[in-house]
């Protein structure tokens, strides 16, 4: 039997590359999955959501094989698969979805009703998401392949743009979903909280959607240098200057049409002192302050129901001090939840292939080997303005 290796979470702050079983066409409950395929992983990305687990901020068990952002080559095809064949190059949405239940048929693939016995929604290599083995590995099994996988139309073309196309599994659709649900359109003014990869993907998506002004804010000034060099407007939240005042200096008004939370539950406060301390409701409350009346707020940033490292007992259960009254008074609309990647990935693939968006440059893709994954996690955790992409087989062109 062929060998396999994967990146395992072994404890707070620690990951290591381990030998793991070669995948079988079976689901986590041991049932035969002839609707699936086995992939040779071409690229697999380190995500901020992975970092939440690695920091010990979830109930993830030791030994969990990480990785939900996967691009691969079909190696083995289940008996029931009809539209794919060996050698196809495909993008894997991070959502595990059956394609058969009500929510899947309504394109809400982030909350599939059948792939996770404990709750709605499944994902690869993620805590409480159904037990599906992650793809930060040499090989991985993907179920319901006809429904889930996006086949690239031309292999050579796809490999030439693989640094961009690897972002289709999560980060680009997630940023795009944040912008779409925030109501970004031609002429919009947009504020995006967070200059990490998801925030940058949301900014690039806002440009693609025709926004007039895209402002990115972060408590880490170093993270703002890259988007500023790309022509985005920025605000430094480590300064003791209110967010609304900084926005007013740019737009002439302290409010924007729409906003995106690309930070999530490990948010920090604003200002010199506040930026040193975690304050999980800060982003959502600040977005309500700076979003105009009847504006919309997209929330692709992750919020959890159980956070062992929460700043207080309420936060440990996902209960935050949100100023809902302010949002109600301003008639805001909020949209949360996992991104339904299948809703967007084909159109975004076309945008990449036709050079409408250069997402790898925007998010700072850096390709590393599987053995370098622990280093990638460490640097990303320290705030490196990069998107680390793991290349397990040395297939990504130099």
UniProtKB/TrEMBL annotation:
Keyword Oxidoreductase attached: yes
Keywords, alphabetical? Metal-binding, NAD, Oxidoreductase, Zinc
Q: Name one Pfam family in it.
A: ADH_N
Q: Where is the Alcohol dehydrogenase-like N-terminal domain?
A: 35-153
Instruction: Output the Gene Ontology terms for molecular function.
Output: formaldehyde dehydrogenase (NAD+) activity; zinc ion binding
Broadest EC class? oxidoreductase
UniProt keyword Oxidoreductase present: yes
Q: Which cofactor does it need?
A: Zn(2+)
Question: What Gene3D superfamilies does its record include?
Answer: Medium-chain alcohol dehydrogenases, catalytic domain, NAD(P)-binding Rossmann-like Domain
Where does the signal sequence lie?
A: none
What superkingdom heads the lineage? Bacteria
The record's listing under InterPro entries reads: ADH-like_N, ADH_Zn_CS, AlaDH/PNT_NAD(H)-bd, GroES-like_sf, HCHO_DH_non_GSH, NAD(P)-bd_dom_sf
Domain Alanine dehydrogenase/pyridine nucleotide transhydrogenase NAD(H)-binding positions: 183-229
Q: Which PANTHER family match?
A: GLUTATHIONE-INDEPENDENT FORMALDEHYDE DEHYDROGENASE (PTHR42813:SF3), ZINC-TYPE ALCOHOL DEHYDROGENASE-LIKE (PTHR42813)
Q: What name does UniProt use for this protein? A: Formaldehyde dehydrogenase, glutathione-independent
């Amino acid at each position: 039997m062929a060998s396999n290796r994967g990146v395992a979470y072994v404890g707070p702050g620690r990951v290591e590359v381990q030998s793991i079983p070669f995948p079988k066409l079976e689901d986590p409950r041991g049932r035969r999955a002839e609707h699936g395929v086995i992939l040779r992983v071409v690229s697999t990305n380190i995500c901020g959501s992975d970092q939440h687990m690695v920091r010990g901020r979830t109930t993830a068990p030791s030994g969990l094989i990480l990785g939900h952002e996967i691009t691969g080559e079909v190696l083995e095809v289940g008996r029931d698969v009809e539209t794919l064949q060996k050698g196809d190059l495909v993008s894997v949405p991070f959502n595990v979805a059956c394609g058969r239940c009500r929510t899947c048929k309504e394109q809400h693939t982030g909350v599939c009703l059948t792939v996770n016995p404990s709750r709605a929604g499944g994902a690869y290599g993620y805590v409480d998401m159904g037990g599906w083995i992650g793809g930060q590995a040499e090989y991985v099994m993907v179920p319901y392949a006809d429904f889930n996988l996006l086949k690239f139309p031309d292999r050579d073309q796809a490999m030439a743009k693989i640094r961009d196309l690897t972002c289709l599994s999560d980060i680009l659709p997630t940023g795009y979903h944040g912008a779409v649900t925030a109501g970004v359109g031609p002429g919009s003014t947009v504020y995006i909280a967070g200059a990490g990869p998801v925030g940058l993907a949301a900014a690039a998506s806002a440009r693609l959607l025709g926004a007039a002004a895209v402002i990115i804010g972060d408590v880490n000034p170093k993270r703002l240098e890259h988007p500023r060099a790309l022509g985005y407007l920025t605000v430094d939240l480590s300064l003791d200057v209110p967010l609304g005042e900084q926005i007013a200096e740019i737009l002439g008004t302290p409010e924007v049409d729409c906003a995106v939370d690309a930070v999530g539950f490990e948010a920090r406060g604003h200002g010199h002192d506040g930026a040193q301390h975690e304050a999980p409701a800060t982003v959502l409350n600040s977005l309500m302050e700076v979003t105009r009346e009847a504006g919309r707020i997209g929330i692709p940033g992750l919020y959890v129901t159980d956070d062992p490292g929460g700043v207080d007992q309420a936060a440990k259960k996902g209960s935050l001090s949100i100023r809902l009254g302010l949002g109600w008074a301003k008639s805001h609309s909020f949209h949360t939840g996992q991104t339904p990647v299948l809703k967007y990935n084909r159109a975004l693939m076309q945008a990449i292939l036709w050079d409408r968006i250069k997402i790898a440059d925007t998010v700072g893709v850096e390709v590393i080997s599987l053995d370098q994954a622990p280093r990638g996690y460490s640097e990303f955790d320290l705030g490196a303005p990069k998107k680390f992409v793991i290349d397990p087989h040395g297939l990504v062109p130099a």
